[in-house]
Design a protein that fits this description.
This protein is α+β, with helices and mostly antiparallel strands and about 180 residues long. It contains one helix and ten strands.
Length: about 180
């Protein structure tokens, strides 16, 4: 049976990547704060619809969305206690539990990792926003197509019903 070396000693001062997170309202990237989109259909007709990207559930669009911002920066960390979970070491400093993969012996190593994490989280957040926009566009296109067909079908039915009503009135007028 092999043994594992503990990465940091108890009471050793190391550097932690920290974890900063905040949410901010930003202008909706889909409607640019206008709360509506104008779609041009294949036949050239334009349709203005409420922006689905900045709507929450059945609520009307707000013209803005919540976006998460992450900020990792080196913070001093004093290892007071260590635990092992599976093959991973977790250190405690009295306030936080931190995986050894987010602890570093030097500030420079930690700064390098913080930059990597900030770039990674920024890309993930941008990708999430783009995915939401793309998914909502597909729903919007389907919705416009569906309701356009429904209006066309109901218009034909209404025209037919008006014609039948007119014929019935005409027949009734001839009987009296």
């Amino acid at each position: 049976m092999g043994s594992m070396e503990i990465p940091f000693d108890i009471s050793e001062t190391v550097w932690w990547t920290g974890y900063g997170y905040r949410e901010e309202w930003i202008v909706c990237p889909e409607c640019n704060g206008q709360k509506a989109l104008t779609l041009i259909q294949g036949n050239g007709d334009t349709v203005s619809i409420a922006c689905a990207n900045c709507s929450q559930g059945c609520e009307p669009p707000l013209g803005r969305i919540k976006r998460a911002f992450y900020h990792f920066e080196p913070q001093r960390f004093i290892c007071e206690k260590v635990e092992m979970h599976g093959y991973e070491f977790w250190y405690h400093d009295g306030e936080r539990n931190v995986s050894s993969e987010n602890l570093f012996k030097t500030r420079e190593e930690c700064e390098k990792r913080c930059i990597e994490l900030n770039v990674k989280k920024e890309k993930e957040e941008e990708s999430k926003i783009l995915t939401n926009i793309t998914r909502n566009r597909a729903k919007i296109a389907w919705s416009v197509h569906y309701w356009g067909r429904t209006v066309s079908k109901l218009t034909k039915e209404l025209d037919f019903a008006k014609k039948r009503l007119s014929e019935c009135k005409e027949r009734k007028g001839r009987k009296t």
